[in-house]
Structure formats: C-alpha cells, structure tokens
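Input chain follows. Return structure tokens only.
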Amino acid sequence: MGRLLPAVKRAAKTANAPLSATRRAGDLASLVRLRLNGVVPVKAQTDICAERRAPYSRLWRRSSFSGVPAKMRTIGLIGGMSWQSSRLYYDRINQMTADRLGGAHSARIILNSLDFDPIARMQTAGQWREAGALLANSAQALERAGADCIAIGANTMHKVAEQVKASVAIPLIHIGDTLAAELRRDARTRPLLLGTRYTMEDPFLIDHLERKGIGALTPEKPDRDALHAIIYDELIKGIVTDKARETVRAMIRRSYEREADSVIFGCTEIGMLFPPTEAGLPGYDTLELHAAALVDFALA
C-alpha cells in the first residue's frame, strides 16, 4: 500500500488540472494500473466519466429527421390488465410512432406491468378503493421514473381513474375522452357498448359518454354475462375461438333492433376476436383510439 500512495497523489493532482490529449491518455493508463490494485481516485474517475458523456448529453434535444419533436415525451403505461392487451398497446404505440416519424424511431414508454390476478379478485369483491390504491402507486412510480403522462391500459380500471389522476402531478390520458371525441366526430349518438360486466353495468364509462351527449346501449343481461366470461375465461389468457367470435357478432346483430348506430369495443381484448371493421356496425376499438391519443401527446 505504501508504494501506491505516491501514484495516488499524482493521479489525483492530475485529475484536478486541465487535460491535454496526451496527458489524458497517460492518466487513463495510470488509472488502469491503479484500478488493478483496487485504488481509483474518485475525482479523477468522475472527471473522466463526465468527459465521456459530454458529446452525448444533449443528443435528445435534436434529430436529423424533419418533423421530429425536439424531445419526445415519455408515456407511462399501467399495464398487465391483462398482459394480452398490454402487448397490443406496446405494439400499436410503437407502430404509430414509427409510421409518423419514419426512420428507426420508436416510442418512449415506461411500462409498469401489474399482476392482474389480485386485481381481478378485488374487482369481484368490490374492493375498488384498494385496487385504485394499487394503480395510484403504480402511477406514482411511473412519474418518479420520468413519465410525462399516465395511461391506464384497460377500460374497466378507468373506474378508478379519478383516484389515479389525483395521485400524480402529470396528466392522465383518459380512454373515455378519446372515445367520446371520435364518436362525436362521426356523429354517433347511440353506440352499443361491449366490455366486461363492470364496464357495461357500472356507470363510470356510460356516464362519461353521457356527459358528452352520447347515449350508450349495453347488451341484455344474458349477453353481458356471456361476454364477461369470454373476456375473463378466454381472452385474457390468449384463447381466441370461433365460438366466441360468433357469440359477440350475434350480440351486435341483436343491437340492430335497438337502433344502435355503432359498436364500442369497450374492453381492450375484444379486438383479439376480430377488427372493428368486421363488426357489422361502424366500430370503435378503445385500445386503438387510446394508443393514438398517447402518441399524439408524446409527439406534440
């Protein structure tokens, strides 16, 4: 150790002085030798790391591609509800970003994927406040990680959207807002709402649309029960069957008699059955609309 002290002092003294190219190379060699002996002057190590980062530290502020924002915003996505739809969110957000920006661009996303099983149990037990606390904690973690907005990657869990929104300082991009905007743009006033039992029977999304002048219909109870079972027993597990497709198409056909003018895929997994263009009525896939709204925010 006594033999190392003069070398340590010389390296530390050199680190505090301006570095020429020649001296920098010599100092790096000295530091390598010291490192092998388990000693690296902290000041020298810090200065060298800073010099290595300097040429790259502001690259995010500019881009060589025309029309690219100076700084793409980061999307904070609360996922896992279910993971089947989370992978679709990730795919669609990145594809939309690539389509708009070209080149090798992709979206800036921070995904906090939750374990859905305990949340599903809370839903069944009516423990929405507790479930909302889990999502609020997830949103706060995303905010701390650098997200510029929060998105809940599920229709049903927008039942606790206000609780989540109140827990963070960054905006929450609500799935109902982008849905309502698209329905109003197309002058739809009587859509059939398909989703989980909670989305179809609890008022959180129906009232959200009603406040914007849209009176959503829901299927009759036997159809609501059948659709809820398809979602929880099949779609969230990645199971897609022709029987489920036909069951949902039959629900939509029955809505003709009730003068539905469109159909809402109000569960982010329903699009796994068939695209909204094959619904038999003008279709609105909430996952697709939500993803587009998130990309709009990120690139604004």
